[in-house]
Amino acid sequence: MFLQMMIPHHRQGIEIVKQARAKPVQDQLKVMAMAIESTQGDEVKKMMEWLRSWDQPTVAPSSAHDHHGGMPETDREKIERLAKSKNFEPDFLNLLIAHQDDAIQMAKIETMNGINPDVKQWADQISKSRKAQIDQMMALLKKKP
Question: Residue 55: how many CA atoms within 13 Å on its side-chain side?
Fold first, then answer.
């Protein structure tokens, strides 16, 4: 279920970071957004391969969020508003920080309650990498005047 929920979460993250391509943002942020897009694209492929190899559906049942702390997806309206933001960089960073924190929360639940040792280990890696991204984004927010 963790993988089934993380696939759409990752795809939303990719949708968010793609918005930084055509915007005037710090070079460091542009590089980070491209890295997130690439990494999360590779992670989606990995999750899909795992699920297919286990003959599992790639989509979580509609009640799946109930079992992972009720974590909702990132608000679609917020993602759409971001494209029109007059303060794109801080709005982008704040939205992506919240989005990546949701990934950490989901990964921590999997690390504690998951069954498959490979997935639990991977969830721990996700938690650590997203924490590092958040730390980097927080530093970028503080650099802005």
Answer: 0
H-only helix segments in the chain:
2-18, 27-53, 64-67, 76-82, 88-113, 117-143
Tell me: the pLDDT tens digits for 96-138? 999 999 999 999 999 999 999 999 999 999 999 999 999 999 9
| Closest of 46, 17, 13, 30 to residue 125, by C-alpha | 46
Cα-atom radius of gyration of the chain, to the nearest Å?
15
Q: Is the dihedral of CA 53, 58, 64, 68 positive or negative?
A: positive
User: What is the reported pTM?
Assistant: 0.87
Of 120, 110, 104, nearest to 9 by C-alpha is: 104
Task: Report in angstroms the alpha-carbon separations of 77 from 2, 13, 19, 53, 128.
Answer: 24, 14, 14, 35, 28
Rounded to 5 degrees, what angle do the CA atoms 111, 131, 129 make?
Answer: 75
Report the C-alpha gap between 134 and 116 in whole angstroms: 27
CB proximity list for 125: less than 8 A, separation 6 or greater: none
Q: How far, in Å, CA of 37 to CA of 44, rounded?
A: 11
